[in-house]
């Protein structure tokens, strides 16, 4: 089996391609997959589509041809992450300024870096699981009863832009009652390999929609794939004014784009919130130095290990700066045409919080305390 390598160089993991094929051919398995936001704007490049072209509909169609039973969009997991993470941000602001900000938690390479290099900041990293893990936990709960009735078991597969997600899925913290929230992670390039192996004419596919009932996600969830996307989505959730003008103002705060460290200040009630967005672990280190020394104070810091964010993950087709920029533009374009911009307006999210899966179980299913 071949191995996939994480950009930090810290994580090398075996491919799960054979396991996924085996599950697909096993009639006793229900193979349920989720596809990360960044995958849709890069996978098509291998089939001659322009970088940034959103091919999520074709990806769903190809995956059904490959034999995946059910396909979903991880952007729903991102919507859940923002719902939970902004609660933590508001609590942090309520407490008043401390030495450390609330750090984001959706990048597993960043978590690993903090665990090994900066254990002092671990209490300040959000307890939110990543979108992949949140959605994985929800999906395992959702199919539990149906599996028992039908005598099958659900295998949860995630298509992700990086190899670090494989190690994340295998962590003991994400295995509840001996059941993993996500069983296998395939990178974008591994999914491309499956599509090529079967000889699917990707460009000729008619786009398809994801399965019900998790078929709607917001634009906020989709922009998670770009550096600054988590912060922008969080701001949309916490500001009182949700008008198009206000959302435009957030867009122009300076948190979009490829600059390695971006800083913004946003008035929120009687406070001014200081935010930083950093991508690349070397840049995160620089930012941590000024935070540690007390030179700078922030309330919220988004960290992504890959420069540019997940669109540039090591599990994506190889890219240079122009392709990365086009992929990023593709995600923002998807957001701009999406009918639902805010995670709290997503009816699927409403139903989840009101329904039996998440009611009184948000802590158990959506949060994590790493054992290090
Ligand atoms: Fe993976 Fe890179 Fe995204 Fe982190 S930033 S989750 S390492 S693709």
UniProtKB/TrEMBL annotation:
Ribosomal protein found in the keyword field: no
GO cellular component, one term: membrane
Gene Ontology MF annotations: 2 iron, 2 sulfur cluster binding; 4 iron, 4 sulfur cluster binding; ferredoxin hydrogenase activity; iron ion binding; NADH dehydrogenase (ubiquinone) activity
UniProt entry tagged with the keyword Iron-sulfur: yes
Entry keyword set: 2Fe-2S, 4Fe-4S, Iron, Iron-sulfur, Membrane, Metal-binding, NAD, Repeat, Translocase
UniProt-listed GO biological process terms: ATP synthesis coupled electron transport
Predominant cellular place of this UniProt entry's protein: membrane
Necessary cofactors: [4Fe-4S] cluster; [2Fe-2S] cluster
Family the UniProt entry places it in: Belongs to the complex I 75 kDa subunit family.
Stated name of the protein: NADH-quinone oxidoreductase subunit G
UniProt organism field: Anaeromicropila populeti
